[in-house]
Structures are given as C-alpha cells and as structure tokens.
Amino acid sequence: MFKKIKNKKLFILLDQMLVSGSNFILGILLARYLGVEGYGQFALLWLIVLFFSSLQLAYIISPMLTLGSKKSLSILDKYLSSMVFFQFLFTIILMIGLYLFFEIAVYFDKQWNIGDLKPYVMLTTAFFLFQDFLRRYFIIKLQYFRLVFLDSIAYLGQLGIVLYLIYTDTLELKLVFLAISLSFGLSLVIGYSQIEKVSTSMAYKKLLLLKNWKFSKWLVYSAILQWGSGNFFILAAGAMLGSWSVGVIRVMQNTMGIFHVLFMALENILPISFSKIYKKDGYKSMMNYFKLQLKYGVVIFGVLIIVAYEFSSNFIQFIYGNEYVEYGYLLKWFFVIYTLIYITMLQRYLLRTLGLTKVIFISYILAATFSFISSYPLIEYFKINGVLMGMLIIQLLISIVFFKYIIKYGGRYE
After folding, report:
1. What are the DSSP calls for 2-32, one per residue?
2. How many whole angstroms separate alpha carbon 84 and alpha carbon 231?
3. Which of 65, 80, 160, 246 could, after both became Cys, cross-link 238 (CB 3.0–4.6 A)?
4. Share of the chain above pLDDT 70, in %
5. Which helix (H) or strand (E) covers residue 240, if one does?
6. Which residues are within 8 A (CB) of 391 and not within 5 positions of it... i.e. 6 or more apart?
7. In this structure, are residues 229 and 368 in contact, taking their beta carbons and an 8 Å threshold?
8. At what angle do helices 8-56 and 257-281 cross, to 10 degrees?
9. What is the DSSP string of 127-152?
10. What is the C-alpha to C-alpha distance for residues 292 and 86, in angstroms, rounded to an integer?
C-alpha cells in the first residue's frame, strides 16, 4: 500500500492522521476514565512536556527543516549526524532542567500531588522529544515508510497499553505516563538503529552549533514567551478555578484534533516549501504561495465555524458524555481561535524564511505581557470564558504584529 503513495505530502498527511487520530482517541479515553480532575492533572503535567517540545522545535527542529532542506545530498548525512549529536546533548540538558523543576515542586506537593510522578514524567519527556526529532530526521531524508512505521509503534502502542489498563481496571496517572514512555522508547530504539551515522569533527559541530543559534536564537526566546503567553491562562485557570477547568479546556483542544493533523503536517511541509520557492523564484512567488494557503484556510475554517455554532454541544455530549456537555459551547471559541492560529502560522513561516525571526520574538513579548496583566481580571470576572477570551486576543495581537512587519520589511525583498 505504501508503495502506491508517491506524493510526499500525502505520506506526511497519512502520518499526521495516525498521530493526531491516536492522540484524539487517547484524549477521549483519559477524559472519560480519569475524570475531570484526573484528566486536568494529566493535562497540567503534559504542559511541561509541551514546553520542552517547543524549545526543541525552536532550536533543533526548525533549523534542521529549514537549513537541512538546502543541503546537497553529498553533505546531508554529515549535517544530520551532527544534529543527532545536538539532540542528545539537548535532551540531557532539558532533563536536568526537568529534574530541578520537580525538586522545587516538592514544596507544593500537598497542593499539586506530583512528586511521585517525577520518574514517569521525566522518562516520558526524554523519549517523546527524541522520537519527535527522529520523525523530522526521516522527513528530511525522504524516508516516509520509516516515519509511518515508527509513529505506528509510538502512537498506536501508547493507545494499546492504555486500552489494556482500562480493560483490566488498573488505569491511573503514573501508568499512563509509563505507557507513553514504553511505546515511545521502543520507537526511539528502532528508529535510532536505522539512521545514518557519519563521524564529524568538533570544529564542524561548533560551526554548526553557532549557525543554528544565529538562526534560532529569537525562535528560542519566542518559544519560551509563546508557551508562557499561550498557557499562562490555562495555568492561571488551574490555580484559580481548579484542575477541572484545565481538563475541560484540554477536552476542547483534543476535540480540535483534526486540525492538529493539518497543523502538524503543515509544520513539516510549509517551511520547506516557503524556503524552496523563495530560493528558486523569489519573494513575489513566495507571497503568492502565502496568499493561496491563506485563502484555503480561511474558507475551510469559515464553514466549520458555522457548523460548530449549530452542533458543538451535541458533539461534545456524544464523544465525552454528559459530564462535559455543559461546556460544549466553548468549542465555538476554539474554532475562531484556531482560525487565527492558522493565519499566524503562515505568517511565521514567511518571516522565518526571510530571516526576520526577531519579529516573532517581539510579538510574543507583547502576547506574554498581555497574558500576565490580563489573566487574573479576565478569569476572575468571566471565569472559564475569560480563559478563551484571553487566548483569542493573544492570537489576534500576534497576527497584527506579524502583518505589520511583513508589510514594513517585505518590500526590501521584492
């Protein structure tokens, strides 16, 4: 079957359907069988994993996808071997940071109750990050069969173990993290055995390290601010309203899983496409490509927003049960938010291709400042609606900043 799929975009889309589809089902299972409070606690801890993943995307994966696509085949393996070395080093540093976080969190253990989960979360984070790196490695190498094979082990594996725990009535939070770490760990071991290993000098690694930092330093700063601004409202909701609110918000995000398929696939395709079009045909062609993708997205989301206004509560009740139905209206907020996320995502790819990554950092400073100032009054006055209101305003502010700088600096590249 895989041999018949010759188009790389279809292969990547198939992989993202596998990833997001299994995550979507996993979210449903955990929401139903852990309950609102338990699922909320899982969602809070998973934010830690996503924070480290955002750092990895900024410093390791984004440069690899953008710069690696420009490498000739004769030096690609040398480049990627050095990136594997950086990934090892990066993972070790992040695990040290995660360990320190849990040591500090001990002082809040009575409230958060996460101390016993430290080894499980650390193991899950390490395996998840490195497996995600290998996914992008095989995309750069155009080895799509291996990509789908490894993700099948990781994502279907975690789903299978959780289903077994539910069947045996032994599901609990630490075993959920253990299930994820086992499936991703197996995928990592198999994937690592299949990569090309080329010896490179320390001088080459140092040169590449500096080049990566020059490309991604503003992306790293932006990733920290983006995580803070995007999740500060969720963290504040957990503190002010309780972990149930985090569980409810995460359920709505999980329901939007079909768009995670789209966004994750585009993250693997569009940065490379923007870069190649700009290199081959110039700025105007790249802008035409940007406008085309923008038009497609706005039309699709516009139709879905209309549908959500009619059927959101019924859909939530059908998928998650009566426990969540009273919050089904929140899904309407998320369709609008995800429309803006799509727009800013396209703008960000364009800015990265032009090397204007500092602009991304500036936009997230504004978003983070807004989050820190407005989260308390919005949640205090509007409760859980204030969380969604804040998330929407953040995306709107970022898009406005991106648009302003695209207009301001775009003319220089014509």
Report:
1. GGG---HHHHHHHHHHHHHHHHHHHHHHHHH
2. 29
3. 246
4. 90
5. helix 202-240
6. 230, 233, 333, 337
7. yes
8. 100
9. HHHHHHHHHHHHHHTT-HHHHHHHHI
10. 36
- The yes-or-no verdict on residue 5 having pLDDT over 50 is no
- Looking at residue 10, its pLDDT comes to 75
- How many Å is the maximal CA-CA distance in the chain? 63
Instruction: Give the model's pLDDT for residue 1.
Output: 44
Cβ atoms 97, 224 nearer than 8 A? no
Give per-residue pLDDT as tens, 357-381: 778 878 888 888 999 899 999 999 9
What's the distance, Cα to Cα, between the start and end of the chain in Å?
A: 44
- Block residue for tokens 């953008």: 66
Rounded to whole angstroms, the Cα distance separating 146 from 326 reads: 43
Structure tokens at 180: 């994820």
| DSSP sequence for 160-203 | HHHHHHHHTT---HHHHHHHHHHHHHHHHHHHHTTS------HH
Tell which wins on pLDDT, 123 or 326.
123
Query: What pTM, to 2 d.p., does this model score?
Result: 0.76
How many Cβ atoms are within 10 Å of 284's Cβ, its own excluded? 12
> For residue 265, which of 200, 345, 321 has the smallest C-alpha distance?
345
